Amino acid sequence: MKRILGKLTYSNVLATIAIFLVLGGGAYAATKLPRNSVGTKQLKAGAVTANKIAKKTRNQLKGQTGPQGPQGPQGKVGPKGATGAKGATGATGERGPAGTDGTGPAFETVVHEVNANGTILTQTLPAGSYVLSANLYLRNQGATSAEVVCSIEGGAGFGATFPANSTVTVPVAAANSYGAQTSVPVGCDVVSGELDVLSGQMIATQVKSVSKG
Structure pTM? Predict the structure, then answer.
């Protein structure tokens, strides 16, 4: 022991203390860092993560919300859904008003093989309003063309031209009102040629009223 103490000098003691501080000084500094002594140079890259930052600080780091982006393309049409249950039958609606009366009785007269020039047929009608129509089936037996004008009750005439040796149907029509029973004639005037009537028919249908404009 005396030999060791005899060799200690001031320089040896200082060197020993310095070695102790170098070996143990790092641990001391790690647990006794002074305030505001750590800066960016002391932090390794990636050392600070989001979980180590205070929530209040994280909220302060958020920027303002940017403008809304453009609408994306429309997605594909989804599959058709199942058919829903049938709904309840609705209540029956109210019955509508009765319709107006239709046309009245119709009268018909038919003739065959008569002269085409003059009155061909006559129909006696009770008082009332009527729509009248007739079809006359005429024949031209001559070698040249023929011409005829036919009418009901001397009204508007319906003309027709017949080639030689031909037959033509001439339609005529009228609408009249009668205050009493009336005989209504259908006739033709032959303008040229030779004509006869193979058949003729007139139908008179009674209506509520006749309007002539």
Answer: 0.50
